Write the structure tokens for this entry.
Amino acid sequence: MTLRLYDSKSQTLLDFAPVTPGHVGIYVCGPTVQSSPHIGHLRSALVYDQWRRWLTYRGFDVTLVRNVTDIDDKILDRASGTIEQWWALAYRYELEFSAQYARLGILPPTYEPRATASVQQMQDLIVELVERGHAYPADDASGDVYFDTRSWPAYGELTRQRPADMIAAADADPRGKRDERDFALWKGTKPSEPISASWPSPWGAGRPGWHIECSAMASRYLGDQFDIHGGGLDLRFPHHENELAQSSAAGRPFANYWVHNGLVNVTGQKMSKSLGNSIFAAEFLEYAAPLVVRYYLGSAHYRSTIDYHDGSLIEAEAALERIEVFLHRAERRLAGTRFEGGGVEIVPAAFALAMDDDLAIPQALGVLHEHVRAGNAALDSENLAVAATLRGEVFAMTEVLGINPLSPEWQRDDDSRAASALDALARTLLEQREAARTTRDFGAADRIRNDLAAAGIQIEDTPTGPNWSFE
């Protein structure tokens, strides 16, 4: 088995060789929890869930670290002027991210560290950079500390830019910088910021810059050298470029491979607040069942841009329905035969070949749907041995991709939707009963009660209105 992946740094497909045989360490830049998640966040988290699932299937012990940036300018700005504490706002949005990830069947990371829990490690890294001559405290008494980009000749190697062509770093007031491209490692406390958003440091009270957070947390949880660093394409510059520079300047090998997922457009346009076309995760997951959303967001190659348009989810739903119909059909036809539950649940070679080739999921899905077609044909011709083999392979492929419609996690989702539908129907009938009682049509009111009772539903009349429950 040779697994290959596209390394953004070298811009080539490389054979994957883990730092430690049999183990894979992945660090993924998680969300800055300053607002609700949108579909781009879902897509990014899903991509690394797919990588994790495939590497696990291939026999690796995978450690996936996805951080939470819970201290940041944007978080403080959002909380400013409100009664909500910045840390409470961050935690509220963190819970929202976790809930939407779970709805999409994204497995929890091995570790999900918050930036605020690793401030000491960030300070240690900054001290090391200052001692090595790659960082400096500002001489304006602000308490800021900056990375000296001119001290590191390799700066720009990830995105293949010359420093002279780079835009100025806009993450701090430039007054204390030696060069406009220097970026903040530590930000001195400002009078307008809450005291709770600062920590003591050798340079005065303050808080970490965004880029130093990920370098410190990646090393803390995965070591100074690890396998894969992932994140959205929009993070390559400046975030990942700065991570690479500061970690390398501190003498840490850091990530062997850099993997970046493509973004999500809406009808041909990049999502943005200015265009007002952002689709939030909670909204998107109301458009279709979460399994359908997972299939859709995970069906393109991870490095490509997804362009969402009307009809996209309908196509995904139809594709999933074909898979589900075959699995149910095979289950019924094979029941009671010597092939019941038959077929070794292992992915076919063509599927594995596609997944090993930089996670080529469109080609892998092509293999999956070809097996569905062949499986239906085998059932039509009563070739149960072939049908059982194909059922086992289809089952295995959908399990690896996290899209098995027969998996218990999606059945729970169906149960939830059924419960919501039942509640809506019961409440509609209770409203009709109340209306009948108001007009003194007690015969109609009694019929509704009796119909609900026949279905095993008991009505309890209370001062605030009727409630229902199962008898």
